[in-house]
Amino acid sequence: MGSQAIKGVDQTRAQWYWKSNSDPWSTNGNEEWTKYSDIESAIIEEAFNQKNKTKLAELENYSINLNDCIQISKSDPNEQGQIKRVLTSRNESPGLREERFFLPPALSKTFNDDNGLAANNFLSRWREDKELSDAEIVEHAANGIIIEGKQLDISSLSHFPDEEEVLLPPATIFEVLEVKKTTNKTHVYLKLRHPGYDGGYGDLDVDGL
Which of 14, 37, 84, 147 is the most exposed place for a label (fewest CB within 10 A)? Predict the structure, then answer.
């Protein structure tokens, strides 16, 4: 099965879809296609652009075989379905990102309506009630990201066990030296400066934030 393209005069970007009919191999009736999330689509596209002959992408619950244009369930290899690649205008990219961090309806509204005042009050009261140190607050926040990732079925994308957390001391000054972006990851190179190193400032380069 070949890829499908929507051509335009402006720049395009790739969006990946999976066939969501009850019988994904049926040729009867209308075809139903569902978009992969923005992150999943970027992972698939990165594998698609690799030059090696075996084009595979790994998602949370599926393996993507790009040579045959199918997705294979990790829990049941017999559960397979078709996928397709569509090129769309970059002007449509905001709509394509709607699933990226879609939250359950049970979550309350954001704190954006009052310039962050409600958020600041909420966090202040929460911190007083919990009586946590800065390090413990950071740990709670990191765990919350992992939990939310599990709710969104992208826990593997929100948990990076090979990366190390670094809690910067107060009064640390940092300068962004360089930013490098790949398909689904951003590397930020920082120079950290903190008073107290031999009476002056010490520099430390950090890669891969």
Answer: 147
Identify whether the C-beta of residue 17 lies closer than 8 Å to the C-beta of residue 86: yes
Pairing mode, strands 80-89 and 4-5: parallel
Measure the N-to-C terminal CA separation of the chain; round to a whole number of Å.
39
**Which value, to the nearest 10 degrees, does the dihedral of the CA atoms of residues 119, 124, 129, 134 take?**
110
What φ, ψ does residue 203 adopt, rounded to 5°? -110, 140
pLDDT tens digits, 119-165 = 667 667 766 666 777 777 777 777 777 676 666 655 555 555 555 56
Spatial distance between the Cα atoms of 50 and 54, rounded to a whole number of angstroms: 9
Residues 6 or more apart from 110 whose CB is under 8 A from it?
none
Query: What confidence tens digit (pLDDT) does each residue in 40-79 have?
Result: 998 999 899 988 777 889 998 999 999 999 999 999 999 9
Each domain of the chain, given as residue ranges in start order, spans 12-100, 117-193
CATH architecture of 12-100: 2-Layer Sandwich (3.30)
| Angle, CA 170 vertex, CA 166 and CA 171 arms, to 5° | 120
